[in-house]
């Protein structure tokens, strides 16, 4: 109902509008007034390049044929974006740090800047995107045919599908070349293109929603009525069967595609201006997808119920408004579909052409021409531009060939899924690049190569079956009649859906090969470094700045002039000069022959990589840097050494920590030694004092005896008695000191035998009984109720008891002195408590009472026959410790002091086992 | 791995939420669960399975929206190893 000329003219005018928009945006961006163009909203809209004419037209077709399957195409990307924190954020961070230009550049950069891998990825991308481009050509061609058929055969429509398809392809090629390759951009960012894509995203959105609203609320009375009508007309409005492997497969494929498709990578990662935009896109892009899919089902069911049988459901979006005589809406819908097709073709072919020129053409040119850079000004930039334009034309032509060969029999969606399954082959390598440090370039090459081959055999090749008898025969019988190799029934797996079948085998072999080969091969230095940079991008303090800081020690032999010459040819004079000035490198006549610092060479390599990809920049630079002196191997060696230095310094730090600890321990030991030394001095002076006192009196008395022979008998006897008394005291003192020293140094043999402590206690009490009587002390005893055995030495034990009891007697000043001894047995111990009703121990002495030479009260108070020397308690304490027991001052039943001696019970109670109980031997 | 000691606890919780959202989304969109809703019922005249799918989809979008609104920027580095 619309004249084909009018339709074509509208499309051309629309393209002109896009072009103007892109031009203005580019201009603004160059003037630094990008503002709105770099907003999260524009970013989100540009990501919507995911919705091609497959979404615009094909989704309705899929809904009409396969029910809800179309939703899986949008659910996958939703999951990826909702989970942006894990994958997309890391991808973006790395890409920004490494100045990544494409997915091929990303993978090759991670796997040691491998040219081979970049070429393989590029080839796979070109081949797999071909069906996708064909899909767009087919959609545009069909939509032009559909919108103009009612008006009879128009001039252009009369060309037939093939002719029209070719014309569309040519128009698109010219458009894209004009659009995307006007110059080689500094960072492969195209603000103009992004603006146009965002605009197109809005157009297709509004168009589809308009058609949807018209169908649901204009033609019909809400969605419920549409379903009811479809059900009346005999269509199944429910899912025909349970969701199964095909649903899972499509969900997985679409999730892969939104990351791995070259155009998605270009828009989402390369064109991204700010990582934070991802935050908005995380919910806004899924929301866009949801709104785009909201009307798909109603349109499909309304079309099925009302359109004549045999109409193409892929074109319902267009034919429903036409059938309702809404020409304006139909034209709008056509422009919407046209928008979705052009945006996909523009971005996809730009992305692919960057990959082809950077990874295939440039390395080849560098290999075959000795000094490309020297030929003419801007030589490399011109080569890049020409090769990009050529590759855009070639890519579109390939798309046309596929469109032409496969005929128009198929629906739109299956063609798109073939492409999805193709780009999914990047996924294992991509995930390995992000998360597995050990993946090697050989693993990536082998896995991806094998996966691609399996995809080609099981999915791509069968898509030609309709147009080729040979392929059809291959499908039916297998190559050379080998049934196990039939493309859609590999190894006899014939009963699965072809898509599921292909994805299963290709992914299994791809991932398996990647893992096995990676485990079997080794990484070279560059790979190892890049793997670290990629996997640990969030860990490095440099924010993924790569190995920029590691190559400082290399001696460069490239002169600044050479480098400037090269930079000028790739980046242009202005940018090259800015770069050199920024780094403070002098070049030209002022600095003839001066060498550029290596850090700058590395920086330059990164800058070049942002234009021509990592692998090409590497080749190019290594040609200029004289004699290939700046081999990356050397850089890596330095980096390796740096790593070693780091690990050494870590070890050193550990060592020094240990040393610090040892020093502290030594200090502590030293302090302890000092304290002991002081103690020893104190002890010595105490001992000398103790020895000196009796010695002085002995000496003076004996002098008196010598000088005065005329002393009377009684006096003489008194003096002799005094001498005797003092020497006894002295002997006892020396004995005790010897005893103490022996105890402390463990020199004396000390064996613990099972003994009866009650017997020892009784003996001690007998000894003390005499003194007690002498002093008129009430002496009482309370026995342990059961026979008891402890490990010890009965003499020593007795010594301890005597010591304590004697103390208790000696220091008791009470008018009615009493000493009470009580022994008892607890679960694990034998306890003796010796208490008196004396003055007790003053609180200030309680802590030191067991130290040497501590005497309570005045020093001269010898108190009878057992004068205190201040060593008794210390000796007792030492002995009891040797018996594994304790002696302590406790609150007793009597008002005075109460000493409690606790000894561990010997488990071998029966005396028959005497000798077997060796508790604490001497230490 | 634990975050730096000065990181507020809320951040860790949000990071966990960032993991839970896509994980649960995936679970809800895969067959054993999905087929629970595929039983030929109509809700307001619309097949239940379609309503369910759109419902999960909307919930994911709202979840992502709520989560990203809270943290103004990605400037700070996450704890190492949390990005798997």
Summarize the structure.
The complex is a heterodimer of chains A (923) and B (84). Chain A is mainly alpha-helical.
What is the straight-line distance between the termini of chain B?
11 Å
- Strand content range of chain A: under 5%
Strand order of the largest sheet of chain A: 2-4-5-7-6
CATH topology of the largest domain in chain A: Sodium/glucose cotransporter
> Can you tell me the CATH architecture of the largest domain in chain A?
Up-down Bundle
The helix content of chain A, as a percent range, equals 55-70%
Overall pLDDT score of chain B: 72
- Overall tally of domains of chain B: 1
Could you give the count of β-strands of chain A?
A: 7
Using the coordinates above, name the CATH class of the largest domain in chain A. Answer: Mainly Alpha
Number of helices of chain B: 3
The count of domains of chain A is 4
Strand order of the largest sheet of chain B: 1-2
Portion of residues within helices of chain B? 55-70%
The general outline of chain B is elongated
Task: State the secondary-structure class of chain A.
Answer: mainly alpha
User: What quaternary form is this?
Assistant: heterodimer
Percent strand of chain B equals under 5%
Low-confidence stretches of chain B: 1-7, 72-84
Main sheet overview of chain B: 2 strands, antiparallel
Would you kindly provide a written description of the structure presented here, covering whatever features stand out?
Chain A: Belongs to the sodium:solute symporter (SSF) (TC 2.A.21) family. Chain A: It is a multi-pass membrane protein. Chain A: It is an enzyme of class 2 (transferase). The complex is a heterodimer of chains A (923) and B (84). Chain A has 923 residues and is mainly α. Chain A folds into four domains: 4-29 and 37-411, Up-down Bundle (Sodium/glucose cotransporter), CATH 1.20.1730.10; 548-630, no CATH class; 636-744, Orthogonal Bundle (Helix Hairpins), CATH 1.10.287; 751-913, Histidine kinase-like ATPase, C-terminal domain (Heat Shock Protein 90, 2-Layer Sandwich), CATH 3.30.565. Chain A has 34 helices and seven strands. By secondary structure, chain B is mostly helical. Chain B has one domain. Helix content of chain B is 56%, strand content 5%. Chain B has helices at residues 9-28, 31-34, 48-70, and strands at residues 42-43, 46-47. In chain B, strands 1-2 form a two-stranded antiparallel sheet. In chain B, helix 1 runs antiparallel to helix 3. The longest helix of chain B is centred in the C-terminal third of the chain and has 23 residues, at 48-70. The termini of chain B are close together. Classes of the chains: A mainly alpha (923), B mainly alpha (84). Chains A and B meet through helix 4, helix 10, helix 11 and helix 13 of A and helix 1, strand 2 and helix 3 of B.
């Amino acid at each position: 109902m619309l004249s084909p000329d009018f339709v074509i003219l509208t499309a051309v005018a629309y393209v002109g509008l896009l072009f103007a928009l892109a031009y203005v945006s580019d201009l603004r961006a160059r003037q630094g007034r990008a503002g709105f163009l770099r907003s999260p909203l524009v970013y989100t809209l540009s990501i919507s390049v995911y919705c091609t004419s497959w979404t615009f037209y094909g989704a309705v077709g899929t809904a009409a044929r396969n029910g809800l399957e179309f939703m899986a195409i949008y659910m996958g990307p939703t999951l990826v974006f909702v989970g942006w924190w894990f994958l997309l954020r890391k991808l973006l961070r790395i890409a920004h740090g490494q100045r990544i230009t494409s997915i091929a550049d990303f993978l090759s950069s991670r796997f040691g800047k491998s040219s081979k891998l970049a070429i393989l990825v590029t080839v796979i991308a070109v081949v797999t995107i071909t069906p996708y481009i064909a899909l767009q050509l087919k959609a545009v061609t069909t939509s032009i045919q559909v919108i103009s058929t009612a008006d009879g055969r128009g001039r252009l429509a009369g060309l037939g599908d093939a002719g029209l398809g070719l014309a569309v392809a040519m128009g698109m090629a010219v458009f894209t070349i004009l659009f995307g390759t006007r110059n080689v951009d500094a960072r492969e960012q195209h603000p103009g293109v992004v603006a146009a894509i965002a605009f197109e995203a809005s157009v297709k959105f509004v168009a589809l929603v308009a058609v949807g609203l018209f169908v649901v609320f204009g033609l019909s009375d809400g969605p419920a009525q549409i379903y009811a009508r479809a059900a009346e007309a005999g269509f199944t409005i429910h899912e025909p069967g349970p969701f199964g492997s095909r649903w899972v497969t499509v969900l997985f494929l679409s999730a892969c595609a939104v990351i791995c498709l070259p155009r998605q990578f270009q828009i989402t990662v390369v064109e991204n201006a700010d990582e934070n935009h991802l935050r908005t896109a995380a919910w806004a892009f899924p929301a866009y997808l949801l709104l785009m899919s909201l009307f798909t089902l109603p349109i499909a069911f309304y079309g099925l119920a009302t359109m004549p049988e045999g109409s193409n459901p892929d074109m319902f979006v267009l034919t429903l408004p036409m059938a309702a005589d809404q020409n304006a809406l139909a034209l709008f819908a056509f422009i919407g579909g046209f928008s979705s097709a052009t945006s996909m073709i523009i971005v996809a072919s730009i992305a692919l052409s960057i990959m082809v020129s950077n990874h295939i053409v440039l390395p080849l040119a560098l290999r075959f021409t000795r000094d490309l850079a020297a030929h003419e000004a801007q030589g490399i930039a011109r080569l890049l531009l020409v090769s990009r334009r050529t590759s855009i034309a070639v890519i579109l032509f390939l798309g046309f060939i596929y469109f032409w060969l496969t005929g128009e029999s198929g629906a739109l969606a299956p063609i798109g899924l073939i492409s999805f399954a193709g780009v999914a082959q990047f996924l294992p390598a991509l995930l390995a690049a992000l998360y597995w440090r050990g993946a090697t370039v050989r693993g990536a090459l082998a896995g991806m190569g094998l996966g691609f081959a399996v995809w080609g055999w099981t999915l791509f090749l069968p898509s030609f079956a309709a147009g080729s008898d040979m392929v059809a025969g291959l499908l039916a019988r297998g190559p050379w009649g080998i049934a196990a190799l039939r493309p859609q029934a590999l190894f006899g797996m014939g009963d699965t859906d072809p898509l599921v079948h292909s994805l299963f085998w290709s992914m299994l072999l791809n991932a398996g090969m990647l893992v096995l080969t990676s485990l079997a091969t080794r990484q070279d230095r560059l790979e190892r470094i890049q793997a670290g940079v990629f996997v640990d991008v969030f860990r490095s303090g440099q924010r993924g700045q790569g190995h920029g800081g590691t190559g400082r020690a290399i001696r460069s032999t490239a002169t600044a002039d050479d480098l400037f010459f090269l930079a000028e040819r790739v980046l242009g004079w202005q940018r090259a000069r800015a770069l050199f000035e920024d780094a403070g490198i002098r070049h030209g006549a002022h600095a003839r022959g001066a060498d550029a610092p290596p850090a700058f060479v590395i920086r330059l390599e990164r800058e070049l990589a942002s234009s021509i990809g990592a692998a090409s920049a590497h080749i190019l630079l290594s040609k200029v840097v004289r004699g290939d002196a700046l081999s990356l191997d050397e850089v890596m060696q330095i980096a390796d050494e740096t790593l070693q230095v780091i690990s050494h310094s870590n070890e050193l730090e550990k060592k020094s920590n240990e040393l610090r600890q040892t020093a502290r321990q030594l200090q502590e030991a030293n302090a302890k030694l000092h304290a002991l030394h002081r103690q020893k001095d104190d002890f010595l002076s105490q001992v000398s004092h103790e020895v000196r006192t009796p010695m002085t009196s002995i000496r003076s008395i004996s002098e008196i005896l010598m000088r005065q022979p005329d002393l009377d008998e009684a006096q003489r006897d008194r003096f002799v008695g005094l001498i005797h008394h003092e020497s006894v005291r002295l002997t006892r003192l020396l004995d005790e000191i010897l005893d103490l020293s022996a105890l402390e140094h463990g020199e004396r043999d000390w064996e613990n035998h099972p003994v009866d402590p009650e017997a020892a206690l009784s003996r001690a009490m007998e000894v003390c009984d005499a003194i007690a009587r002498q002093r008129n002390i009430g002496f009482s005893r309370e026995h342990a109720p059961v026979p008891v055995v402890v490990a010890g030495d009965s003499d020593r034990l007795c010594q301890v008891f005597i010591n304590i009891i004697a103390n208790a007697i000696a220091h008791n000043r009470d008018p009615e002195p009493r000493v009470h001894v009580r022994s008892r047995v607890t679960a694990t111990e034998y306890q003796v408590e010796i208490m008196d009703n004396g003055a007790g121990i003053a609180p200030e002495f309680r802590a030191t009472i067991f130290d040497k030479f501590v005497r309570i009260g005045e020093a001269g108070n010898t108190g009878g026959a057992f004068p205190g020397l201040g060593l008794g308690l210390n000796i007792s304490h030492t002995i009891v410790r040797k018996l594994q027991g304790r002696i302590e001052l406790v609150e007793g039943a009597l008002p005075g002091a109460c000493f409690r001696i606790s000894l561990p019970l010997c488990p071998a109670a029966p005396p028959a086992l005497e000798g077997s109980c060796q508790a604490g031997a001497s230490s | 791995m634990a975050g730096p000691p000065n990181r507020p606890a809320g951040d860790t919780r949000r990071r966990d939420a960032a993991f839970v959202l896509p994980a649960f989304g995936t679970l809800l969109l895969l067959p054993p669960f999905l087929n629970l809703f595929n039983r030929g019922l109509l809700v307001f005249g619309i097949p239940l399975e379609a309503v369910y799918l759109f419902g999960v989809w909307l919930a994911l979008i709202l979840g992502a929206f709520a989560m990203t609104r809270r943290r103004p920027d990605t400037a700070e580095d996450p704890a190492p190893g949390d990005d798997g």
